[in-house]
């Protein structure tokens, strides 16, 4: 037995096997009005909130439904209903004074839609929690999450909510998802259970606590830039992840709209009295926060102010900024001073200048500027980062027209050329690490490591929760992981990863089919013609050195010759040869570029020039700070050299023993 709505929207008790009992209202005389509907408005004010059925063994089920009127506050009128839908009785219930009614709940979505006009999402969450239980409240919040990838990205858009309107998350995600590969939402109240949603208990005048809480929980090695905006900020249609990285430029610590010391013109500023008290009256029992004063690391003469509804932060400055912001949050210094102060002081200490770019503010005293002739056109033609404030929770016609204009201009701008997707296919000890790092040093190429190997450290730190999440995501659906993670381009012109023969020939066969079926994926087939040297490198790494590379300024460890298992060597030479031939056949219909270890994968030599041309990117200076460990002459590595030479004599492998400079 369960409560539900039938196709016509009437409240029914479903007994199963097609038997439905309609719930009726005994206080009306007309038959048409007796059936309770999802849109019913009893007495002109009471809406059906929902109900539940409490069923226990050997006890008749108890069925109850709740009605609520906005002017009744936290009181519902609870009706008891019999199994045939008839009215038994009712009583008022003051929410929060008794536990929520137990039983499987049914929440009326039409009620929630109506209540959004007068309740923010925190109040709706609390109403549902106290009426139907925590699970119903959590489900309500979870439904506000947009379906988007949760992984790392070079640039993250972070939306700060200083009011309880989680309902704006999905519209904002839809508005910006084509411009930013990763969007996070930081809320002061309950947040959806999703990695891109975060909750910290700070209100409108403490939104710097939301910024600090978000940054303190992140590993900034994964991100080059964060763009923080409030949920009532509308970004200029030209501002994308790629554009933000361009505006930041090399070595910059962030972006703000001005660099203004706190003392400059603050008497005309709306928040001046509150800022003064938050700084100068820390120990005051009425205005202070219980502190004796600000930390000496934040002297009064080095305070700044400015609207902090839109600013950017370089990943390289994030730790210093977070540490500088922390005491200002603890001291409850007003955020419009705390954030610019932390940004400029952190940047000055690290020698990372803050780029200055304008924003467009609509002051309340100026009236509704969106209705001014030409105002929207001037904003769209400007170099402003954003427009503030634009209230989206209950948009007025002028706001709707503005959003449509921004969306059109964003779509009309030249769409970026889709990134070239590529895959380095190889086996171990072929120079693939060097090739990957060289490609990844190109400013327009993103080249991941072995995403289908043992770890995903080019996507997330090995010991992080994000790494564990990505491993689970890869295991659940390798093909989807390929699209969503391995080929997530961000602002790159070419994006790819490295995979070893065995990883998709045996461990991930579904991945092989996914790659073969997508003939737009370009294959860089990396081989090593000298199979004996490849085997020696693999054997020494596994049994002697346990590493195959060292830094350029590092002295390679000394190695002594070892006895090589001849049978294993011969078997490996044959197997790798078969794999090379198989890969050439499997990807014969793909754009394929074969490059060899012996082609001198110099930083900027002909081989790397050819690889860059194959990926469709302009040549750029490439560098990698590593070099190999082992000497090139096999005689210096093989203790049983004569035995090996006899075994390969007369075979295609014989020249490999003497093939060295």
What does this structure look like?
The chain is α/β, with parallel strands linked by helices and 661 residues long. It has 3 domains: 2-142, no CATH class; 155-412, Spore Coat Polysaccharide Biosynthesis Protein SpsA, Chain A, CATH 3.90.550; 420-657, Rossmann fold (3-Layer(aba) Sandwich), CATH 3.40.50. It is 33% helix and 21% strand. It is built from 21 helices and 28 strands. Helix 5 (169-176) links the parallel strand 10 (155-160) and strand 11. Helix 3 runs antiparallel to helix 4, helix 6 (207-216) packs across helix 9 and helix 14 packs across helix 15. The chain is globular, with a radius of gyration of 32 Å. The model has no long low-confidence stretch (mean pLDDT 85).
Write the layout of secondary structure elements.
Elements: E1 2-5, E2 11-16, E3 19-22, H1 31-34, E4 41-42, E5 46-56, E6 59-68, E7 75-81, E8 87-94, E9 104-107, H2 109-115, H3 121-132, H4 134-142, E10 155-160, H5 169-176, E11 182-187, E12 197-199, H6 207-216, E13 225-230, E14 234-235, H7 241-248, E15 254-256, E16 260-261, H8 272-280, E17 304-305, E18 310-314, H9 318-330, H10 335-350, E19 354-356, E20 360-361, H11 375-381, E21 386-388, H12 397-412, E22 420-426, H13 432-440, E23 445-450, H14 465-476, H15 478-486, E24 494-500, H16 501-507, H17 509-517, E25 522-527, H18 531-545, E26 549-551, H19 566-586, E27 592-596, H20 606-614, E28 626-628, H21 641-648
Parallel strand pairs: 10-11, 10-13, 11-12, 15-19, 20-21, 22-24, 22-25, 23-24, 25-27
Antiparallel strand pairs: 1-2, 2-3, 4-5, 5-6, 5-9, 6-7, 7-8, 13-18, 14-21, 15-18, 16-17, 26-28
Helix pairs in contact: 3-4, 6-9, 9-10, 14-15, 16-17
């Amino acid at each position: 037995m369960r409560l539900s709505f039938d196709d016509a929207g009437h409240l029914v008790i479903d007994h199963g096997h097609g038997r439905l009992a309609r719930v009726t209202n005994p206080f009306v005389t007309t038959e048409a009005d007796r059936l309770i509907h999802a849109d019913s408005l009893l007495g002109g004010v009471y809406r059906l909130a929902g109900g539940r059925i409490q069923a226990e063994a050997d006890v008749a089920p108890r069925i109850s439904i709740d009605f609520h009127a906005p002017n009744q506050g936290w009181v519902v009128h609870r009706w008891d209903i019999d199994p045939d839908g008839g009215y038994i009785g009712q009583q008022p219930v003051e929410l929060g004074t008794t536990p929520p009614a137990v039983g499987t709940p049914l929440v009326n979505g039409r009620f929630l839609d109506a209540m959004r006009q007068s309740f923010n999402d925190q109040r709706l969450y609390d109403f549902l929690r106290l009426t139907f239980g925590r699970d119903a409240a959590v489900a309500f919040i979870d439904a506000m999450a947009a379906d988007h990838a949760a992984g790392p990205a070079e640039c993250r858009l972070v939306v700060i909510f200083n009011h309880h309107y989680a309902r704006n998350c999905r519209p904002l995600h839809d508005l910006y998802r084509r411009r930013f590969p990763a969007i996070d939402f930081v809320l002061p109240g309950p947040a959806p259970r999703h990695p891109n949603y975060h909750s910290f208990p700070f209100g409108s005048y403490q939104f710097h606590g939301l910024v600090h809480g978000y940054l303190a929980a992140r590993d900034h090695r994964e991100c080059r830039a964060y763009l923080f905006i409030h949920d009532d900020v509308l970004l200029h249609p030209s501002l994308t992840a790629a554009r933000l990285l361009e505006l930041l430029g090399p070595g910059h610590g962030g972006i703000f709209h001005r660099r203004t010391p706190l003392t400059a013109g603050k008497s005309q500023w709306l928040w001046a009295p509150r800022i003064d008290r938050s700084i100068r009256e820390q120990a005051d029992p009425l205005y202070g926060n219980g502190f004796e004063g600000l930390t000496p690391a934040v002297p009064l003469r080095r305070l700044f102010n400015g609207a902090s509804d839109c600013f950017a932060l370089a990943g390289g400055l994030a730790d210093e900024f977070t540490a500088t912001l922390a005491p200002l949050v603890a001291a409850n210094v007003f955020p419009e001073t705390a954030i610019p102060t932390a940004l400029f002081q952190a940047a000055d200490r690290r020698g990372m200048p803050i780029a200055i770019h304008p924003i467009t503010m609509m002051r309340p005293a100026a009236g509704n500027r969106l209705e001014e002739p030409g105002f929207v056109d001037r904003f769209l033609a400007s170099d402003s980062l954003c427009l503030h404030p634009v209230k989206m929770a209950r948009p007025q016609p002028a706001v709707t027209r503005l959003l449509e204009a921004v969306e059109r201009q964003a779509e009309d701008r030249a769409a970026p050329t889709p990134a070239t997707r590529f895959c380095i296919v190889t086996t171990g000890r072929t120079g693939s690490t060097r090739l990957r790092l060289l490609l990844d040093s190109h400013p327009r190429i993103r080249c991941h490591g072995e995403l289908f190997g043992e770890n995903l450290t080019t996507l997330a730190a090995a010991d992080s929760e994000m790494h564990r999440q990505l491993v689970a995501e890869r295991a659940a659906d390798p093909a989807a992981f390929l699209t969503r993670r391995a080929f997530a381009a961000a602002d790159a012109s070419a994006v790819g990863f490295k995979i070893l023969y065995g990883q998709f020939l045996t461990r991930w066969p579904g991945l092989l089919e996914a790659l073969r079926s997508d003939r737009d994926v370009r294959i860089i087939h990396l081989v090593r013609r000298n199979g004996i040297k490849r085997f020696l490198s693999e054997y020494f790494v596994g049994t002697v050195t346990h590493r195959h590379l060292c830094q350029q300024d590092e002295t390679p460890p000394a190695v002594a010759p070892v006895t090589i298992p001849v049978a294993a060597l011969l078997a490996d030479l044959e197997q790798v040869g078969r794999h090379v031939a198989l890969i050439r056949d499997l990807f014969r219909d793909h754009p394929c570029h074969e490059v060899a270890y012996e082609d001198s994968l110099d930083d900027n030599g002909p081989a790397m020039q050819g690889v860059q041309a194959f990926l469709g990117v302009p040549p750029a200076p490439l560098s990698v700070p590593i070099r190999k460990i082992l000497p090139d002459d096999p005689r210096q590595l093989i203790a049983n050299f004569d035995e090996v030479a006899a075994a390969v004599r007369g075979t295609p492998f014989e020249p490999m023993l003497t093939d060295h400079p």
